[in-house]
Amino acid sequence: MTLTIGLILVALLLLALMGLHVLWTTYRARQARRRADADAAAAAAAATTLQGEVDPASLGGVQASVLWKSEPPRPQPLRRAPRIDALIDAIATLTPESPVSGDLILQHLSLVRRAGNKPLYVEGYHAQTDAWEVPSAGRRYTEVQVAVQLANRHGPLNEIDFAEFTQKAESLGEALRALVDLPDMIEAVNRARELDAFCSHNDVKLVVYLCPAVGSWSLETVQACAQRHGFVPSTIAGRMVLMSMEEDAPPVLVLSFDAQAALADDPGEAVLQHIALSLDVPQSPPEAEPFATWYLCARRLAEDLGAKVLDDQGDPLGLQAFESIGATLQTLYLELARHELAAGSAAARRLFS
Length: 353
Description:
Elements: H1 2-46, H2 64-67, E1 89-96, E2 100-101, H3 102-107, E3 114-115, E4 118-126, E5 131-133, E6 140-141, E7 143-149, E8 151-152, E9 155-156, H4 159-176, E10 178-181, H5 185-202, E11 205-212, E12 217-218, H6 219-228, E13 232-233, E14 239-242, E15 253-256, H7 259-262, E16 271-272, E17 275-280, H8 290-305, E18 307-310, H9 319-338, H10 346-351
Antiparallel strand pairs: 1-7, 1-10, 2-6, 3-4, 4-5, 4-7, 8-9, 11-17, 11-18, 12-16, 13-14, 14-15, 15-17
């Protein structure tokens, strides 16, 4: 009898434990669903539109966060070093018989500049720092990587480009007496096409045109006005740029005008019928507030020059049109960040180049 009662008690205890397990599992599932719902709501809130009542020119400064109903999406940390990124590169690994000097690698870098119109990159693994780095004199490396960029604004890496890349990687391997491990061509080309499709779908440049309300402008008038607003001459004729505060970053804005007028012997006699102000969206991190800078510069240049603000169809652009552009821009920022290609990151700048 005692044994039977004991068995019954054990059975009841097991049933109780099973019930607790079911309750715990159900609780965790509900919590997971709540977290997923909260994340979805946050993402929807981040994609809200601009406030129509706010005029950016009244802010007294470039503060894009004031323009948004929610905070602009934060870009991922900038990828500075190493330069090679498995997300956008096909990588060959070179393993030398013994550690190779940075001096020797530097002597042979001329072998690996480009494959077609795609840049090549070389890095060495420095055992003492346990890091990949750009080869430098006086250092020794136990491994070397050669990478080719899979896509850029010129299109995807193709089979011919890949063959040139492998030939150059093998030549460098021979010079370094290294065993070369090459990536698979079919996989690399397929990834290149996928990246190119993504790049084409998300490659956005915002351009606004300023035209004189009456007559035309002299080149000197436009240049002097642009300089007052922080633009400096570019190395390319017919362009002035607003430089970024970030070191070695591309310009925030580009002001373009007739190159022939810019090359005129007498700038005082050169006239302009329109100028264009552009923002390369994937090149600038949203936290730097480039959209507000673009809008404010367009407005202030228009006021100083007595200009009409037009789109590429010649239609006037008012505040409502800029609000619509800003709302679309938030969605683009989120899409880029979701694919680990946040606007302004090193990977995005390379892909959209």
